[in-house]
Amino acid sequence: MTAREIQAVSWRKSTRSNANGGACVEVALTTDHSAVRDSKLGQASPVLAFGSGAFGAFLRGIKSGKLDR
Predict the structure, then answer these.
(1) Based on the number of CB atoms within 10 Å of its own CB, is 7 exposed (0-12), middle (13-18) or buried (19 or more)?
(2) Burial letters for 34-68: b for 16+ Cβ neighbours within 10 Å, e otherwise?
(3) Distance between CA 14 and CA 12 in Å, rounded?
(4) Would residue 38 be called left, alpha or beta, if left means φ above 0 and alpha means ψ between -120 and 50 degrees?
(5) What total of structural domains would you count in the chain?
(6) Closest Cα partner for 5 from 26, 34, 25?
(7) pLDDT digits over 15-29, tens only?
(8) pLDDT of 53 over the 80 cut
(9) What does the alpha-carbon distance between residue 38 and residue 30 come to, in Å, rounded to a whole number?
(10) Per the domain annotation, does 68 fall within a domain?
(11) DSSP secondary structure of 3-56
């Protein structure tokens, strides 16, 4: 993802984020990528970008219990 693409996406806070403990994650989805950032840092946060297929496989692994949480 380019910096321009990152600025243009709509971020949403994960439902698994812990508001009290400060573990806040935001996710943004495009047709080609999925991105994750620390919501506390907002625009200043580093962004991890994944191909949509890789991120989908990761989520399926978490939901099936094959990956530790």
Answers:
(1) exposed
(2) bbbbbbeeeeebebebeeeeebeeeeeeeeeeeee
(3) 6
(4) beta
(5) 1
(6) 34
(7) 766 666 666 888 898
(8) yes
(9) 18
(10) no
(11) HHHHHHSPPEE-TT-BTTTTB-EEEEE-SSEEEEEETTTGGGS-EEEEEHHHHH
Residue 19 lies in a domain: yes
Domain assignment of residue 42, yes or no: yes
Tell me, yes or no, whether 69 lies in a domain: no
Confidence (pLDDT) at 7: 78
Q: Are the C-beta atoms of residues 52 and 41 closer than 8 Å to each other?
A: no
Place of tokens 């989908």: 56
Instruction: Evaluate whether 27 touches 8 at the Cβ level (below 8 Å).
Output: no
Domain hosting 25: range is 3-63
